[in-house]
Amino acid sequence: WRGAGDAKDKRSDLRVVGLGVLVSETGHVPLLYRSYAGNASDQAVLGACLEGLRQLHEALDEGEGRAQPGQRTLVRDGGFWSPQLELDLDAVGYYSLISLPLGHKASEAALQMAADRGAMKPLPGKLSHVRAARMRTKVGELDRTLVVVESEELLKGQKRGIAVALRKAKKELRKFERLIEKGRITHSQLEQRVQKTLAREHLSTFVVTNVGGTDKAPTLRWRVDDALRRHLEQTRLGRRVLCTDRHNWSTARIVSGFRGQWNVEELFRRAKKGGVVPWGPSHQWTDGALRLHTFATVLGLMLVSLARLALKTDASARQTMKNLGDIRATLVRTATGKPGRRPTVMLAPELTTQQRRAVKVFDLERWFPTILSCMTREAVDP
Fold first, then answer.
1. Are strands 72-76 and 94-100 parallel, antiparallel or unpaired?
2. Averaged over 156-176, what is the pLDDT?
């Protein structure tokens, strides 16, 4: 969920349009979408979509001819955490899977449990390179299963961020020492500025400081504790706490389900500038025109996803669309030297194996009646 309302930087000539999309796990086909003001709260927008989710839930059950309601799970990131929202999702028939904010009390307990020796264990199958720990506990008044999962990519990114922040913090702390020597900073000012400097990237966890002295003659001592830094890396960095009411799911299934969000992000990348279904440029301004423009974009995203599903291809969306776009038949008007309408002849294109398959899957014979009959028997190399 991301991104019509006034721009947050107060520009009157710019409108920011947010788009929330619910997609299927298989093929990541858009099932429900909402366009909204970009300066609106994501939580509020999701809450406003709950009735639409309920209706979608019922329509899917009816379309599938289910005697019992289907079990469906809504996966989202930590920005959507709310105990009330969890209850509301349950009321409309959705299970929940979310990345719990690390500052939450339940997250702290889960991280402490995962820090015990032997708690983190490798997952089976394709996720054998990932370690995770699991516990069942109360999250507020809710009964939830928590999974602490490691991510090497997240760990590397956080360590890079900490290294950059630490260099800046050291520079600031040395600056404070010079201000102390010149008598240009008070004790209270020093405390506030030190606290602000170490507020970034977990620095306060392993940068030990001691502000002393009097108000007019403060003192500052500081050091980087390598042991505390290593402990931070081993017990907190690179870890997420997943929270779900899918108690019967395996740990690997929970982790795999959460990581499926990457495919939703891929859907948004397709709608950005340079993507296969770019949302812009848009020259509309009114809400109605912007909604219609967004509808056309979502329709395009849906068609791309359905096309990839129908072709059962591992090719990227861009490559798939390029292959389809290159299927072109040439209509030639022949010259007979006689009056009247000139007869035409259709020349079939040279097709790759993937394109020949697409011709059959999408029944393009309906649109090019002779395209199959005049195709060469051998597929050309792409």
1. parallel
2. 93
CA–CA distance, 307 with 276 (Å, rounded to integer): 13
Nearest to 298 by CA among 34, 1, 45: 34
Residues of 171-182 as b/e, b for ≥16 C-beta within 10 angstroms?
eebeebeebbee
Instruction: Give the sign of the dihedral formed by CA 60, CA 61, CA 64, CA 69.
Output: positive
* pLDDT value at residue 37: 73
254 Cα distance to chain centroid: 16
pLDDT digit string, tens, across residues 253-298 = 999 988 887 777 778 888 887 788 887 777 766 777 888 888 888 8
C-alpha distance from residue 37 to each of 2, 242, 264 (Å): 10, 29, 20
In angstroms, the Cα distances linking 116 to 40, 119, 121, 158, 209 are 41, 6, 11, 22, 28
Task: Report the C-alpha gap between 337 and 334 in whole angstroms.
Answer: 9
Joined together, the tokens standing for residue 65 give 């001819």
